Amino acid sequence: MKKPLFILSLALAMFAACTQNNKSETAESDSDTTEFGELKSASAQQSSVDTNLNKIGTDPTPTGAATGSSNNGEMLISKSDCMGCHKVNEKLVGPAYQEIAAKYEATEANKNLLANKIVNGGSGVWGEIPMAPHPSISQGDAKEMVSYILSLKSK
Fold first, then answer.
1. 79 near 56, Cβ under 8 Å?
2. Contacts for 128-137 with beta carbons within 8 Å, 24 or more apart?
3. HSE (CB half, 13 Å, CA atoms) of 48?
4. Nearest to 152 by CA among 79, 80, 93, 77
5. pLDDT digits (tens, 9 = 90+) for 34-54
6. Confidence bin at 154 (pLDDT 50/70/90)
7. How many Å apart are CA 149 and CA 147, to the nearest integer?
8. Rounded Cα distance, 150 and 144, in Å
9. Under a CB-based contact definition with an 8 Å cutoff, are residues 134 and 80 in contact?
């Protein structure tokens, strides 16, 4: 009974995270008509939504943010759906960021390993629940996110 309930709560958490991203992206989108008042085709509207959603976490380094900066990684995480499954200091669906930082040293090899898990997904390290892949996040942005996470290691 616990396992189906846990899986259902995971699905609801992921749905809530996706719904929140859709609402913010939909609010930013233009109208559904052309300049001549004609309705855009459904495929054109969907293409616009897909393009907007795929921009999450793929922006170039923002003005004033240095590459490798943990602030940039924190910003990228806040723009993605990561917080639907992870929190900084307590386990949610996935491990807390501080738990990840405690487990992995901030080496280049570990940054690459964890960035690949963000992009491609992963399973088995923290339990039975797999981490969903995020193919729209670039390797560079994923490494920025990992740098931020690993910077949370307790001193």
1. yes
2. 129/6, 129/7, 129/10, 129/93, 129/94, 131/85, 131/94, 132/14, 134/57, 134/80, 134/81, 136/53, 136/54, 136/55, 136/56, 136/57, 136/58, 137/56, 137/57, 137/58, 137/76, 137/80
3. 15
4. 77
5. 445 444 444 444 444 333 444
6. confident
7. 5
8. 10
9. yes
Would you say residue 62 has pLDDT above 90?
A: no
At 71 the three-state DSSP class reads helix
| Residue tagged 């699905």 (tokens) | 11
- Reference 121, options 99, 148, 94; nearest CA is 94
- Tell me the whole-structure pTM to 2 decimals: 0.57
Pick 140 or 68 by higher pLDDT.
140
Handedness of CA 113, 11, 57, 46 (dihedral sign): positive
